[in-house]
């Protein structure tokens, strides 16, 4: 039984009741819990895991890490039993740390913002990597055309991309997520999907208003660009054919 990923449909839901499907206790009060549904975002796609608590009538389980098991489709909640006991089939209350999630959503959405700022400035860069953790977030691109990669050129790039990003934040562009059947998608969208997504029945697409086409994404987002808040590009550097943009959301 796959875990129902409730956070995918409602990213502002930080409490939920769920049922324990399996529960394994390890040494030092550590445990792994699987539920029928969850609001804990499992680490992946450059976005860190949610943290929080799971409570039963007598028990308190502190969730340190949620991981998706790709073979079973189940989210494994790893953490420490703080008090009491838990049992299979028991109903439990989930509480996600909302402040941490909001920061993760802002940092992840800022990655999309950078992609679209670059796109709208027609800078020939193709995204290759995103790391949206609070400690040192960055995105990486490879050049697909002529770009001035001297330090003066990179400084100008930094200034232009940051200015465009700030404009997009001020424009409060909506960021929406739609899950579609693959067969219902337009050919232009379908052709841009990675191999894995092209073989799935459903695909979750994030649409950033103003972007030419939506892209597949499993992360959590803010609802419009203004919620990204105070956004700063810390550094633009080029090394080993990768252009890295380090940024922060204050
Ligand atoms: Zn995303």
UniProtKB/TrEMBL annotation:
Gene Ontology biological process terms, A to Z: alanyl-tRNA aminoacylation
A molecular function GO annotation: alanine-tRNA ligase activity
Gene Ontology CC annotations of this record: cytoplasm
Obligatory cofactor(s): Zn(2+)
Domain Alanyl-transfer RNA synthetases family profile stretches: 1-244
Record-stated family: Belongs to the class-II aminoacyl-tRNA synthetase family. Alax-L subfamily.
Protein name in the entry: Alanyl-transfer RNA synthetases family profile domain-containing protein
Organism the protein comes from: Paramicrosporidium saccamoebae
Taxon lineage: Eukaryota, Fungi, Fungi incertae sedis, Cryptomycota, Cryptomycota incertae sedis
């Amino acid at each position: 039984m796959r875990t129902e990923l409730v956070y995918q449909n409602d990213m502002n839901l930080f409490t939920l009741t769920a049922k324990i499907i399996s529960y394994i206790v390890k040494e030092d009060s550590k445990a792994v819990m699987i539920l029928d549904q969850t609001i804990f975002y499992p680490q992946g796609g450059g976005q860190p895991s949610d943290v929080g608590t799971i409570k039963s009538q007598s028990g308190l389980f502190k969730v340190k890490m949620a991981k998706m098991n790709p073979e079973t489709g189940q989210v494994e909640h790893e953490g420490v039993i703080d008090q009491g006991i838990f049992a299979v089939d028991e109903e439990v209350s989930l509480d996600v740390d909302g402040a941490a999630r909001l920061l993760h959503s802002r940092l992840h959405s800022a990655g999309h913002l950078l992609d679209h700022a670059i796109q709208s400035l027609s800078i020939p860069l193709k995204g290759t990597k995103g790391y949206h953790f609070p400690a040192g977030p960055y995105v990486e691109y490879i050049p697909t055309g002529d770009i001035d990669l001297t330090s003066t050129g990179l400084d100008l790039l930094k200034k232009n991309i940051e200015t465009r990003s700030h404009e997009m934040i001020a424009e409060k562009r909506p960021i929406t997520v739609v899950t579609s059947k693959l067969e219902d998608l337009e050919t232009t969208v379908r052709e841009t999907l990675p191999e894995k997504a092209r073989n799935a029945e459903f695909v979750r697409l994030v649409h950033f208003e103003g972007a030419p086409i939506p892209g597949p994404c499993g992360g959590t987002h803010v609802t419009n660009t203004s919620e990204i808040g105070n956004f700063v590009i810390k550094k633009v550097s080029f090394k080993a054919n990768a252009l890295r943009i380090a940024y922060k959301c204050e």
